[in-house]
Amino acid sequence: MTSDPTTTIPAPTNPTPPAQPVLTVTTGALPASAKVHVAGVIHPDIRVPMREIALHPSAGEPPLRVYDASGPYTDPGAAIAIERGLPRLRESWVAARGDTESYAGREVRPEDNGFAADDRLTPEFTTCHRPRRARDGRAVTQLAYARAGIVTPEMEFIAIRENLARQQAAETAPRRDGDSFGAAIPAHVTPEFVRDEVARGRAIIPANINHPEAEPMIIGRNFLVKINANIGNSAVTSSMAEEVEKMVWAIRWGADTVMDLSTGRNIHNIREWIIRNSPVPIGTVPLYQALEKVGGIAEDLSWQVFRDTLIEQAEQGVDYFTIHAGLRLHHIPLTVDRVTGIVSRGGSIMAKWCLHHHRESFLYEHFPEICEIMRAYDVSFSLGDGLRPGSIADANDAAQFAELETLGELTRIAWDHDCQVMIEGPGHVPMHKIRENMDKQLEICAEAPFYTLGPLTTDIAPGYDHITSGIGAAMIGWFGTAMLCYVTPKEHLGLPDRDDVKTGVITYKIAAHAADLAKGHPAAQLRDDALSRARFEFRWEDQFNLSLDPDTARAFHDQTLPKEAHKLAHFCSMCGPKFCSMRISHEIRADARQQGMADMARKYREGGDLYMPALQDG
Amino acid sequence: MTSDPTTTIPAPTNPTPPAQPVLTVTTGALPASAKVHVAGVIHPDIRVPMREIALHPSAGEPPLRVYDASGPYTDPGAAIAIERGLPRLRESWVAARGDTESYAGREVRPEDNGFAADDRLTPEFTTCHRPRRARDGRAVTQLAYARAGIVTPEMEFIAIRENLARQQAAETAPRRDGDSFGAAIPAHVTPEFVRDEVARGRAIIPANINHPEAEPMIIGRNFLVKINANIGNSAVTSSMAEEVEKMVWAIRWGADTVMDLSTGRNIHNIREWIIRNSPVPIGTVPLYQALEKVGGIAEDLSWQVFRDTLIEQAEQGVDYFTIHAGLRLHHIPLTVDRVTGIVSRGGSIMAKWCLHHHRESFLYEHFPEICEIMRAYDVSFSLGDGLRPGSIADANDAAQFAELETLGELTRIAWDHDCQVMIEGPGHVPMHKIRENMDKQLEICAEAPFYTLGPLTTDIAPGYDHITSGIGAAMIGWFGTAMLCYVTPKEHLGLPDRDDVKTGVITYKIAAHAADLAKGHPAAQLRDDALSRARFEFRWEDQFNLSLDPDTARAFHDQTLPKEAHKLAHFCSMCGPKFCSMRISHEIRADARQQGMADMARKYREGGDLYMPALQDG
C-alpha cells in the first residue's frame, strides 16, 4: 500500500566501467491500485494497461479504471531492470508490416556525447539494438497506414485505451455535458475512429519504429488531453541516473510523453538509457545536440550536422522532434521591439544563424529532406514556435503569428510526405488572448494538433509558474489544445528537481482533466463523481486513493488528524464534528425520508406554492 | 533586506493571566521595498500606503509602486505592539460625521467564548474600546453617504489607492487592452467615481465604524480584483497567537480581507485580538458563534441568539457578515438528489433548523431586522450561498440557482435599508459552467459585487485545491467577480497552517492579477512589463524583488546557482550559457543595429518581398 518504494538496480557492467551511481527508480503500485490489461479484438495479442483503484466495500462500487501512462514500473508483476530496458512490445508489430529493414546504423562519435571521456562519460546502454528504417523509400508512418485504410495494432491499442470507462459512463451518466468548441469527441472510440482522425491529420501517434518499448498513445483534440514533462541535463547540472529516474517519476504521476531536453555532455548516451526504459513517447529538440556538436557556436551550425543528428536520434527511437523550421529570416526584424525578444532556445539559435549568414534558415530550406528522414522512421513533427512570446507584453504579436503562418505551410508539406505533425504554441499569454491562439492555429494549420507550453497568464510570479501557466493550460486545453507541456515551479529560475517534476505533472494533470470535463469528455466526470461520493460518505481512504496524488492527500490529512480512527471519522479537522456540513446533510436526508422530501421537491418543481411562502415583511 | 524577521511581543499583562505563548508576528519590509504614503486632496489628512519596489540602477527605471494591503507591519517606521493594537486611523473620520454615538455596549458573556475558563480562556484584549452606533436610527453606511452625494475620506482614500500607477500607464502604455465583459473600468479613478459605484451598489466599502484600524478598500467589478484569506481556529486545533499571526502573514502576501471562521472556544476574545490588529476588513459568519452558544445543536438556534451575536460582533468591529438568508425551506428538497448534498456549513445548519421546525428560515423572516442592525454599524452583507455546489456533479443545479434568486430579492431589501451588499458564489464548477454563474449573478443581483470561493474546476485533486480552484478563480475574476476567496492546499483535508496560508494567498494573487490583466485594467501590466524587462536584462535581483514572492523566487534560483556572482550572470541553470535564448536575443539586437533591422521590419510590414523568399522545393 505504500506508494513509493524504490528498486535498486546495480550499475551496468561495462568493459571500462566509469564511476556511476547505483541506479534507482521508483516502482510499485499506487495506493489501492492494480494494473489490469484489456485485450484487443482485431489484434488479440495487444494488452492495453489500465489502473484499477479499489474502493472500500461500503461504497458498493466496482473499482474505478483510470488511464495509466506509468508503464510496467507500477506493475508489481513486472520485473524491472534498467540495464536491460523495457520489453520491446511493438517490435513484432513493426516487423510484421514488412516495410522496414534493420541495418548497421550510424556509429556513435565522440561529439555525440560532447567529447565526454573517462569518468565523465556516461556508459553506453548495455545492449545495442540494430536500428530499422523504411525499405525502398516507403512511408512507414501511422499517417501513411491510416490513409491506406489500415487499422494498425497501435490504433486499436489507443482505441481501447481512450475508450476507457465510456461504456460505464453511458450506463450511469447518459447526459453529455460540456462545450468542445467544435471538436468531435465521440461517445465511443473505435479503432476506425482513431484511424480516421490520424488520416485527417487531426491526431498523431508518436511511435518511432525504433522505440518499440513505447505503449501507443494519441495526441489529438478529439481524445483525452495529454501532458508532457520536460527532463534533461544541462551544462550546469545533473546525471543519467537522475534523468532516468525523473522520466519514471514523471510518468508515475501521469506524464503522457517526456521530452529529453539535455544540453550538456553525454546527450547521446543519456538519451539511449531513457528511451530504452521509457513506455511513453520521447521527444527532443535535435538542434540542441547539433549545437553541442559545433561547440556551441550557432553560426557554425550546418544542414549536414543537423541532418546527421536527425538520423542519430531517429535510429535511437526518438518519437517526435521539435523542428524550428517556421522561423524565417524575414521574421526576425519583427522581434526587435519586443520586451523579451526571442525566448525559445531553438528559435534564438536559428535567428542567430540566419542573421549571421544573412540567409534563410536551413531548416526551412531543407524541410522536404527533413520530411523524408522523419517518414523513414515515423518520427512525428512537433513544429517549434521559435517566436513564441516570452512575456505578456509580447503575446499575439506580429512575429508570433507570422511564424504560425509558416507553420501552417510546413504542415501541408509534411502531410504531403505522409509525416505526422503537431504544432507548438505559446508561451506567455494573458487570458483574453488565449482563445485567439487556438482559433488561429486550428485555421492556419488545418486542425493539426496543438501542443502548448502553458501559457503563463502573468509574468509576476516566478516560483509559481506552474500555477500561472496551469490557468492558461486548462483554458487552452478546453479550447482544443491536444497536449499541454508542463511548467514547473522552477521555470525561469533553475532546473526542476524530482519534487518540481511531480508538482508540474500533477498541476498539468489537473489542467488536462479540467479541460476534459469542460469539453464534455463522456467519461471524465466518473472520477470526480467517485471521489465526491467518497467525500460525502466519509470514506477518507477512498478520497486519498482516488486523488491524483494519494500520498500528499493522506499526508495533509494526517498532519492534523493522524490517528487511524480518524480515517473513519464523520468529520475532519476543518470544521470539527459540530460544523460538518456533510454530516448534517446526511441528517437532512434522514429527515427527508421521514418527511417525504422527494415528493416535496416534485411539488416545488411543478410550481406549487406550498413551500413558497412570501417574505413576511420588507 | 531580509524579508521575514519577527518581532517578539511579550504576552499582555492581565489581572488573572492564563498561560499564553509569547506573541510573535512577522514584521519588516519585503525585499527592496519601502512604504510610501500619498496624501489626499479633498481630505488632506489621509495618507494612503503604497509599496515601492526599488530597481537596480542599471534599469534606469523609477521604483515600481504596487498596491499594499499589508498595513503597518511592513513599515519599518511603525512601532508594532500587538497588545496595543493598531492606530485608530478612521476614528476621527467617523466621529466627524456626527451621526454616531458611543455607548456602553453589550457585556461579554461566558457563552461568547464557549465557556472557556481558567487556562483555556484566551485573555481579553488589553483595551476595551466603547463601541459606537448610529444615532436615532440613522444609516451610517458608505452607501447612505454615497447616495447623499458625500465623498467620504474612505472614498478618496480608495480612489488614490486604486488609481495607483494609472498616470504612469497612461504615459507609457497608452493602448488599453483586454475584455471586461461589460464592466466599466475607468482610465482614471476619481473619488467621485468611487462614490458613484458605491451609490449604485456595484461596489462596497466594508468598513464597520467600530473597526477604525482598517485602511479603506473597495470590492467591486470596476476596481482591482481582491482576494480574501480565511483563518480561524476549530474545535480541534489552534490558538489566538497563531490566528493573529496568520492574519498578519496573510496580508503580508496580499490578502485584501480576512475572514475569521473560528468555531472553537474563545471565539469572542480571539476575534477581538484579530480586529484590533487588522488593517484589512474582517469578515465572519455569525451563525458559527451562535451555534456554539447553543451547544452545537442546530435545532436550538433562535432569532434571539442570532440577533445577540450580530450585535456582539458589530460592536467589536466586524466589517462584513456572511448571512445565509437565501436558503429557504422550500429549497431543501432540491438537494436530495445531489452527490454531495449541502456543503456550506452555514447552509447545512440552517437547513437542519428549517427541517426540524418545518418552518421558514429565521434569517429570511427577520431579514429586515438584520438590515437595521447592519446599517447602524455599517456592517456589509455578504449574502451566503448555503446551497453552493460541493462537487462537479452538483454545479449550476436547481438548488443553487433557486437560492441565487432569493439572494437577488434580499439584495434589493438590503439596499432599501441603505446596507452594502455583496453576494457569495460557488464552489465546485467545471470551466464550461463558470460563465453562467457570473452572468446570472450580475443579472439577478443587479450588479452587486460577486464574491466567490474558487470555483474548483475538478474534484480529483485534494492536496492541490489551491490549483484546481485558482484556475476557476482567474476565470471568474476575469468575467467579473470582485473578490476571490482563497482555497489552500489543505482544503477538504485539514486546517491550513502558515505555509498553506501563504500558498493560498499567492495563488489567489496570481488569479486576481491574471484577471486584472485580462479585464484590461489600465495599469496592471506595468508590473509584468517591469519584471519581464528585468528578466530580459538579467537583473536577477529585480526579478526576485518584483515577484509576488521574492523569498521563494530567490531560494529556487539559489538551489542551483547559489553564488552571488550568479546574480549577475547572463544565463541561468536551465540552459547554461550556450543555450540562453535571452543572451542570444541581445546578440541579435546588436546585429540588428548593424543591419538596420528596424528598417527591415518596416519593409516587411509594408509587404515588401525583400525578405520573403519562397520555399525552394516541396
TrEMBL record, chains A, B:
Its cofactor is [4Fe-4S] cluster. Substrate binds at N230, M259, Y288, H324, S344, R345, G346, D385, G386, L387, R388, E424, Y451. Pathway: Cofactor biosynthesis; thiamine diphosphate biosynthesis. It catalyses: 5-amino-1-(5-phospho-beta-D-ribosyl)imidazole + S-adenosyl-L-methionine = 4-amino-2-methyl-5-(phosphooxymethyl)pyrimidine + CO + 5'-deoxyadenosine + formate + L-methionine + 3 H(+). It comes from the Bacteria. Residues 1-20 are annotated as: Disordered. Residues 30-101 form the ThiC-associated domain. It is an enzyme of class 4 (lyase). [4Fe-4S] cluster binds at C572, C575, C580. The keyword Lyase applies. InterPro entries: ThiC (IPR037509), ThiC-associated_dom (IPR025747), ThiC/Bza_core_dom (IPR038521), ThiC/BzaA/B (IPR002817). Its EC number is 4.1.99.17. Binds 1 [4Fe-4S] cluster per subunit. The cluster is coordinated with 3 cysteines and an exchangeable S-adenosyl-L-methionine. Zn(2+) binds at H428, H492. Belongs to the ThiC family. HAMAP family: ThiC (MF_00089). Catalyzes the synthesis of the hydroxymethylpyrimidine phosphate (HMP-P) moiety of thiamine from aminoimidazole ribotide (AIR) in a radical S-adenosyl-L-methionine (SAM)-dependent reaction. This is Phosphomethylpyrimidine synthase. It comes from Paracoccus mangrovi.
